[in-house]
Amino acid sequence: MLHGPAAMGEPWQPQPQQQRLPGLGNASEPSAWPSAAGGLGTAAPGGGGGGAGTGGTVSPWDIALCATGTAVAGENALVLAVLFYTPSLRAPMFLLIGSLALADLLAGLGLVANFAVRYLLRPPSEAAELGAAGLLLAAFSASVCSLLAITVDRYLSLYNALTYHSERTLGFTCAMVLLMWLLCLGVGLLPLLGWNCLRDQSACSILRPVTKDNAAVLAVTFLLLFALMMQLYLQICKIAFRHAQQIAVQHQFIATAQATSTRKGLSTLSLILGTFALCWIPFAIYSLVADSSYPVVYTYSLALPATCNSLINPIIYAFRNPDIQKSLWLACCGCIPSTFSSRPRTSSDV
Q1: pLDDT tens, residue by residue, 90-116
Q2: What is the 3-state secondary structure (H, E, C) of 15-79?
Q3: Residue-wise pLDDT tens digits, 183-239
Q4: Cross-strand pairs, 211
Q5: C-beta of residue 34 within 8 angstroms of C-beta of residue 303
């Protein structure tokens, strides 16, 4: 027997549910990155949670992340194209620049792929979600490792200045970069291999679908790597200062050119590490102390600057290099401005 409105001939109406911000989701909904690196995106089963295609609106945060990813991919693709089509840019230092650009390019593509998985893929696919999350984990891991490799390379170029070019061969650098990328790809495969919280929502971190424990491990590892980079940077500063003292004593013109090159290298390295710290350290600390119950708007506001680091890297690193600038001028204008110096490239120019 029917009771209530249905028995009186009135159509039954579902009970209203609590309204949620579109695209910001919670731990009870499956999502891809920015959840994988920020606990942000959601794609509720059947198109719920404000996803596209169900009448819901698209989150402005997700639009901003997708636009950032597009810009990151395009900018770093330009760097890779210049390095690939310029035969003179085959030194180990440019290989490391290329590794960083490739990592940032994949990160940008991962942001775009996450947006597509969230708003365009219907019905939602766990495999696609975990694949997008794994791509971003691998890309950002490779970006961090590439910056560490660049720091080590700068340290060796100053510490072993006399034997640097003979010891740091292109083959050796290629082998180290390949090993680094295999390790990062292994990290990216972890979500697909079962290291996720899709089956246990209570175990999710803000880095959804990464679990709380795994997110803590990633954050601590990141902070340790950054501490190592800063230690190497301090050693580089000490060596450069000692070289400057020796140059001041000798008063040699040739040494003055080398000192200018060293200062430029230190300035570039300071920009890279300083920007990296400002963009990533707040997000890493937040992912270490926060959980999925925290307001997701905090995660968005910290994840967006972190992704912008991949947008800034080519500007303050690759595009400031004189050799890359010359290649860009030749490709775009067919000539090199007379303002460029003709001095030979040194290991401190990066």
Answers
A1: 888 889 999 999 999 999 999 999 999
A2: CCCCCCCCCCCCCCCCCCCCHHHHCCCCCCHHHCCCCCCCCCCCCHHHHHHHHHHHHHHHHHHHH
A3: 999 999 988 888 888 888 888 888 878 888 888 899 999 999 999 998 988 888 888
A4: 204
A5: yes
Residue with tokens 């660049």: 150
CA 247 to chain centre: 38
pLDDT tens-place string over residues 225-244: 999 998 988 888 888 777 66
Cβ atoms 94, 332 nearer than 8 A: no
204 SS3 class = strand
Q: Judge contact between 92 and 153, C-beta under 8 A.
A: yes
Question: How many C-alpha atoms does 58 have within 13 Å on its Cβ side?
Answer: 14
Phi-psi region of 304 (alpha: psi -120 to 50; beta: other; left: phi over 0): alpha
pLDDT value at 25 more than 70: no
CB 234 within 8 A of CB 226: no
